[in-house]
Each structure stands twice: as C-alpha cells, then as structure tokens.
TrEMBL record:
InterPro entries: ABC-2_transporter-like. This is ABC-2 type transport system permease protein. Pfam families: ABC2_membrane_6. The chain crosses the membrane at residues 112-131, 143-171, 178-197, 229-252. Keywords: Membrane, Transmembrane, Transmembrane helix. PANTHER family: SLR1174 PROTEIN (PTHR36832:SF1), SLR1174 PROTEIN-RELATED (PTHR36832). The lineage of its organism: Bacteria, Pseudomonadati, Pseudomonadota, Alphaproteobacteria, Hyphomicrobiales.
Amino acid sequence: MFLNIVTLSFKVNIAYRFDFITGIISEIVRAVARIAIWAAVYETNILISSAAPSFSQMTTHLIISGTLVTRWEFQGLIRSIDQSVKSGDLSINLLHPIDYPIYLFAREVGNYIYSVAIVALPAVLILSFWFDFDWPDKFSYGLLFVAFWFVGFTIFFLIACLFGLLTIWLMTAFAIEWLLEALMPILAGILVPLWLLPEPLATLARILPFAWIGYYPSQIYLGRIELGVAWILLVGGVLWVGLLVCWISFLWHRATKQFTVHGG
C-alpha cells in the first residue's frame, strides 16, 4: 500500500506536464540570486572567516542545499493537515488501514521524487554548466551524501509533520508555516552556512535536526567532513529520526483520542 500511494502521488504530479518548466526556471532564478549575494560577499571579503570554503565550494553548497536536497514544499503538508482538521476529514483517516502519518509520508515521498527528478536535477545540471560547480572527489563521499540526503528528507518531513499535527490544537497553520519558514534557511544552513553563525548559535545549530536537512548533506558532498566524523553524524541523524518518530507517535495518539472522545 505504501508504494501504491507513492506511485499515485508521483503520477498526480506528472499529470501537470508543463508545471515542471516553471519549476525549473524558478529554482534557477532562486539559486542565481543566492549565488549573486555570496559573490558580492566574497568580492568584498565581508564576514569571510578562516573556515570559509572557496567560492566554488560555496556555490556548490548553495546549489546542493538550496536547490537539490531541500526541494520539497513542506507548506503543502502543513496546510493539508490543517484543512483535514477543519473539514473533519482527519476523523475519516482513522478508518483507513494505514496510519495517517505513514500515509502522509508515502504521499510526500512521491511528491519529493517528482520534484527532484523532474525539477531539481535539471536545474542543478543547468547551474553546474553555468557556474563553477564541484563534484565529489571520492566515490565514498558520494555514497554518504545519498545516505545523508535520505536521512535529511526524512527529518525534514518529520519536522513538518510534527508542526502540522500541532494545528489540531492551534487550529491555524499560518503561524506554524511562518515559524518553520523562518527557521529553515538559517538552522539548516541553506542561505547562511553554519560556520558563519556566531557562537554558541553555531554549535547549537550543528546538533539540531535542521542541520541534517541541508548543511551536513552539502558538506559531505564537498568532502569537508572526515569520513569517521561523517559516520558519527549519520548515526546522529538516524537518532533524530527515531526521536521525531516518537514525538509524532505521541501527538498522533493524543489526536486520535481527542477525535474519538468528541465523536470523530
């Protein structure tokens, strides 16, 4: 059933055949804007520390973290949960043979596969010819990048799902969307790399789950983290996945009890 939901979600996106063109253009424009900002920073040597990578590495980081691995619109998930709560459809999901959070994960995996395969990868390919783009030096780093990518998306989904389930009690998605939109670019190291953040914020950001969404995958891709440390970080990401799953399970259990008590 899980794979059927993934496939159906992918096919629904494929049905809108011309949306991918605007999606690719949009991703390229956003990436060019981010790169242009950092090009100006590098030219003036403003805020560049000894830990700063080369400009080609920074360009690669911006493309990998901002265009590829985070190419998923979490707002759709949060709004979907919010609308299900307000319309009462959430109580209907209690009758389905698959838990609602698992259904959401399968659906968003299908959406993400479409976004990456049809939009993000073509955009990255075009940007790699346009700018000085680095490729992994070692095959081992490439494999680790894929592992971090998968863990990062899972964490990304779980955080969005966790925030989305809060709408059951808050009855609004606007504030939650705004909060996550504000946190993501900074704590995930998408717009501002974590090495540029002041202490102790930088240290805190490195241990929060957001770092596994964008920052660590790009740093692994660039080979800026030693393999031994990378494996430890990968285990840390898996631990965050387990912790977030526990929190979501707790919230979903509370939510189902609430709907049952109120006759849902």
